[in-house]
Design brief:
198 residues
């Protein structure tokens, strides 16, 4: 039975049709992830600027709040349009791995914003315009770095393996199989089956 990776998409440009199927699939995933990330960036960026400019929230706190809001949107859209749920992993473990990877991403995001804005927020007479400018510059840098981290970490942990590699002894498979035997019974259903029922 042919998989999406094995079947050339006639809608793709000639150069893309000639690519290795696995590489073509990865490229398609990355592009879709990028589009979703672009939308989420504007959600993140908009909430961040509203909190900093209009409510005078500390940039690091505002960045954390805006990041978490965009993260929820990113997860729902990514698992629907980019990644596929693993059949060898319980739903609860998928969520745990997503949260762990996201917390690391949040740490990177907040750390960059803090490092680039703290000299201005600690000043005796804070310059609001400079704080807003540096917050936005820091956010752009953080978004690029965290986007790469998010794609790679999710690809390696919660996305289905490449065809022919389902039995590979990877960290994701080992922890996925373990999760099917442990944890709350209600959430031991493989994530793929839970997704089909949703």
């Amino acid at each position: 039975m042919a998989t999406p990776e094995d079947t050339p998409d006639t809608k793709l440009p000639q150069w893309a049709q000639k690519m290795n199927p696995a590489l073509r699939h990865l490229l398609a995933q990355f592009i879709k992830f990028g589009v979703i990330g672009f939308v989420c960036f504007f959600i993140d960026w908009g909430v961040l600027n509203i909190l900093v400019a209009f409510f005078h929230v500390n940039p690091t706190m505002a960045g954390t709040i805006s990041f978490l809001i965009s993260l929820v949107v990113n997860y729902v859209a990514s698992m629907r349009y980019v990644f596929q749920h693993r059949s060898d992993m319980a739903q609860w473990m998928e969520l745990v791995l997503f949260v762990v990877c996201s917390v690391i991403g949040l740490g990177i995001n907040s750390g960059i914003i803090w490092a680039m804005t703290s000299p201005f927020t600690r000043a005796a007479h804070p310059n609001r315009a400079m704080i807003i400018l540096m917050t936005n510059i820091a956010k752009i840098i953080a978004t690029i770095i965290v986007s790469v981290w998010n794609f790679v970490s999710r690809k390696l942990t919660i996305d289905v393996p490449r065809p022919g590699h389902e039995e590979d002894n990877t960290f994701a498979r080992r922890i996925g199989l373990w999760s099917l035997q442990h944890g709350p019974k209600k959430y031991r259903t493989p994530a793929s089956e839970a997704y089909k029922k949703a």
